[in-house]
């Protein structure tokens, strides 16, 4: 006897071939009815024998399309409608979208086989794609995901493409960006007033230029790259000078996996990341020395080709390893519009490879690492954004605007925390504009009215993101303390807002409850009940305030002020630059000096003591230099970093570094002893706090925990012990994860308001305790 079900599937189920998959599954099991995209995902009405419907449902859950992610399936009985066949209906839009927007996917093996098949009608066509691969987030202009709401809407399908699009047996059945050489977009090369049209002609000319040492702006999925031959030192040096890049490393694109293996040492975990459908940049230890690519750095960031265009460049003979860096000047967001590229990249690029398909929004390449505690996303971009990273038991929309450095924003819709791509540092006008655009883009995409939305922001009074947040006409504004947000981001990922933990948030800077520059914080509690400051690094001072983050010598002067008489002695014996002595004078006279607990600045101070005496050219440079210095030496001794129950006292640690430095010990050995001392200090205070408060889990978050040597030491120390160690995986440990933590604490505060426990203190007191302000 026939019966009918209504099935609703939530998750990443639009733009990944889910409806065609359902159509074929229905054919297999003799099911009639329909399927369509809706605001919440995919909805279907299915009719058939109960046994066939059960088999259909089981297979749908067990073997969905590889690019999809099913978050939830809801099934209910439905009245029979008398269907005799199964069909795909037009998408429905009745209310607010809650479906997950799919991320961009690397070109699949089936499309690559067609790309290089001389008999295929898409032979050498750079825009080849199917339901299993290709652009998604970077072409979507609205939901539900259908061709008229993408940047492909201007290209009408030819009869052949339309036939594939409408054929349930075809791999391109309802592939929204479908195109071919006859009806789709193309590439052209622009150079010195000349235009080379035609995909193959343009690509061959690009390859010729790259082999001659030129720098070419190449339009990709989420923006332009600047490409040059990575093994041509003159070309790389020119690119660094033109971009005003300083010493910041460039990303590399290797021709294939074998070429990547020659560049870096790949663990099985790193190789799995490198070859995943996300195709991120993977940081790994270098096997080859490319000093112009990554000065004073033992790691290289490598990715594999992920678009048909990339594969075609290597097919036509591009150098096997290319620098493939975001097209911009230093610290600006990636360029993604054609006119903008021609204008802003003048003087940097020698030529422009321009594709006709518009990019809906700029999205940088993601950066990941296979670390001691597992894979970690360090920059969230292509392939990861804008997929949800957490779910909260909260129905009210929440917009969290993040921090001013490494900004991301998070929008919570129907309890799903949707995290944006990396947007950059908001002190740059272009990055701030991109931030504003992304906020409005997400709100519009999900049809979220501001008047119903809670907006969360950082408590720093001078953050541009916070000023923007407070100017929004939202229903409520919630200020969130920076370091609590670091801890809460990990709890959100773990779906553990109620879990009591020791939270360790170590970074460079964040506005503290007392107005000081925090950065070495220890909390106990949960996101739900509040995170109480239980300890911190001993206070030091920073001469020049934020300027000390750019000049490690200033940080050194501030920390040495806690070791009487050591400052002048160190400066004289190591013949430090005058800037150090000027900073000592500022400390002595208490001019422009600010209290700090920043572990990030402690790392900078030690780097300056061991030889990094210049200004930094990118955030974290001195600490990275110190880590790579330490990797060169075996562990011989451990410097003391005592915990007194309230403070981690850096003075014995720093005194040991000074003593060995003045005594002539090898600087790499000193750096190694320092790292282990920091690790043992963290381990000791976490165990003590865990025992005192009955807590058996620790969260490690903040930019300091991007240091793989420190993490390796911590893994060894915590192994087999009573405390479980948690780090983020999808949200970056640096300030790129702040928006998720803000959203988590704002959600917890809304839940706490709605259901106050009997005898609980008033909400204002709880909010203050948890680092929130109304």
How would you describe this structure to a colleague?
With 774 residues, the protein is of the alpha/beta class. Helices cover 33% and strands 21% of the residues. It is built from 23 helices and 31 strands. The chain has an eleven-stranded mixed sheet with strand order 7-6-14-8-9-13-10-12-11-15-16, with helices on both faces. The chain has a seven-stranded mixed sheet with strand order 17-20-19-18-21-22-31, with helices on both faces. Helix 1 (18-29) runs antiparallel to helix 2 (50-62), helix 14 (552-560) packs across helix 17 (599-609) and helix 19 runs antiparallel to helix 20. It is globular and about 90 Å long. Mean pLDDT is 94; it is low at 760-769.
Q: Please compute the radius of gyration using only Cα atoms.
A: 27 Å
Strand content: 15-25%
Give me the side-by-side strand order of the main sheet.
7-6-14-8-9-13-10-12-11-15-16
Instruction: Give me the number of helical elements.
Output: 23
| Low-pLDDT regions | 760-769
**What would the principal axes of the Cα set say about the shape?**
globular
Number of strands: 31
Distance between the termini: 60 Å
- Main beta-sheet annotation: 11 strands, mixed
Helix content: 25-40%
The structural class is: alpha/beta
- The average pLDDT value, as a whole number, equals 94
């Amino acid at each position: 006897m026939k019966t009918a079900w209504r099935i609703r599937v939530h998750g990443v189920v639009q733009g990944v071939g889910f409806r065609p998959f359902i159509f074929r599954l229905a054919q297999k099991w003799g099911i009639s009815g329909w399927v369509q995209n809706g605001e919440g995902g995919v909805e279907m009405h299915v009719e058939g024998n109960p046994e066939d419907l059960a088999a259909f449902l089981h297979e749908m859950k067990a073997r969905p399309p590889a690019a999809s992610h099913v978050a939830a399936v809801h099934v209910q009985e439905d009245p029979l409608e008398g269907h005799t066949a199964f069909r795909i209906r037009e998408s429905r839009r009745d209310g607010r979208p809650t479906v997950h927007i799919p991320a961009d996917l690397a070109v699949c093996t089936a499309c690559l086989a067609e790309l290089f098949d001389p008999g295929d009608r898409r032979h050498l066509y750079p825009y080849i794609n199917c339901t299993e691969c290709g652009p998604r987030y970077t072409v979507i202009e609205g939901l539900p995901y259908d061709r008229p709401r993408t940047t492909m809407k201007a290209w009408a399908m030819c009869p052949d493409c339309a036939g594939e699009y409408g054929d349930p047996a075809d791999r391109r059945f309802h592939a929204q960006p479908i195109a071919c050489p006859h009806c789709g977009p193309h590439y052209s090369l622009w150079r010195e007033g000349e235009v080379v049209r035609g995909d193959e002609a343009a690509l061959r000319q690009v390859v010729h230029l790259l082999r001659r040492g030129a720098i070419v702006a190449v339009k990709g999925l989420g923006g332009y790259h600047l490409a040059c031959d990575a093994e041509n030192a003159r070309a790389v040096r020119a690119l660094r000078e033109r971009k005003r890049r300083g010493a910041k490393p460039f990303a590399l694109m290797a021709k294939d996996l074998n070429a990547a293996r020659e560049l870096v040492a790949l663990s099985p975990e790193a190789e799995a990341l490198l070859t995943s459908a996300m195709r991120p940049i993977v940081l790994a230890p270098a096997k080859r020395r490319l000093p112009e690519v990554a000065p004073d750095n033992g790691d290289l960031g490598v990715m594999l080709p992920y678009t048909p265009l990339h594969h075609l460049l290597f097919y036509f003979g591009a150098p096997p390893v290319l620098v493939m860096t975001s097209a911009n000047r230093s610290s600006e967001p990636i360029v993604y519009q054609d006119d903008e590229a021609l204008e802003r990249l003048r003087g940097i690029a020698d030529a422009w490879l321009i594709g006709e398909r518009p990019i809906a929004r700029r999205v940088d390449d993601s950066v990941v690492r296979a670390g001691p505690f597992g894979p970690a996303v360090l920059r969230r971009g292509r392939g990861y954004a804008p997929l949800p990273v957490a779910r909260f038991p909260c129905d009210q929309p929440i917009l969290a605007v993040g921090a001013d450095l490494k900004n991301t924003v998070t929008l919570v819709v129907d309890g799903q925390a949707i995290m944006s791509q990396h947007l950059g540092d908001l002190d740059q006008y272009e990055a701030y504009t991109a931030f504003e655009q992304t906020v409005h883009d997400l709100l519009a995409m999900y049809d979220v009215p501001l008047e119903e939305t809670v907006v969360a922001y950082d408590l720093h009074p001078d953050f541009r993101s916070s000023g923007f947040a407070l100017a929004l006409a939202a229903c409520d504004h919630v200020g969130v303390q920076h370091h609590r947000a670091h801890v809460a981001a990990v709890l959100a990922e773990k779906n553990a807002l109620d879990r009591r933990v020791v939270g360790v948030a170590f970074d460079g800077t964040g506005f503290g409850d007392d107005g000081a520059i925090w950065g070495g914080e220890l909390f106990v509690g949960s996101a739900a009940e509040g995170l109480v400051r239980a300890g911190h690094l001993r206070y030091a001072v920073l001469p020049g305030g934020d300027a000390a983050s750019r000049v490690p010598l200033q940080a050194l002067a501030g920390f040495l002020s806690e070791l009487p008489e050591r400052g002048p002695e160190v400066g004289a014996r190591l013949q430090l630059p005058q800037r150090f002595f000027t900073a000592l004078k500022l400390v002595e006279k208490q001019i422009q000096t600010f209290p700090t607990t920043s572990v990030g600045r402690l790392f900078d101070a030690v780097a300056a003591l061991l030889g990094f005496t210049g200004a930094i050219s990118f955030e974290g440079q001195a600490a990275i230099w110190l880590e790579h210095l330490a990797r060169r030496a075996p562990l011989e001794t451990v410097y003391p970093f005592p915990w007194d129950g309230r403070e981690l006292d850096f003075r014995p640690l720093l005194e040991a570094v000074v003593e060995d430095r003045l005594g002539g010990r090898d600087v790499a050995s000193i750096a190694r002893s320092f790292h282990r001392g920091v690790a043992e200090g963290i381990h000791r205070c976490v165990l003590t706090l865990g025992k005192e408060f009955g807590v058996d889990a620790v969260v490690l978050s903040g930019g300091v925990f991007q240091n793989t040597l420190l993490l390796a030491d911590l893994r060894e120390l915590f192994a087999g012990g009573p405390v479980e160690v948690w780090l983020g995986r999808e949200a970056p440990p640096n300030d790129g994860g702040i928006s998720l933590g803000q959203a988590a604490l704002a959600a917890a505060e809304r839940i706490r308001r709605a259901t106050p426990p009997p005898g609980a203190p008033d909400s204002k007191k709880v909010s203050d305790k948890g680092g929130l302000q109304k």
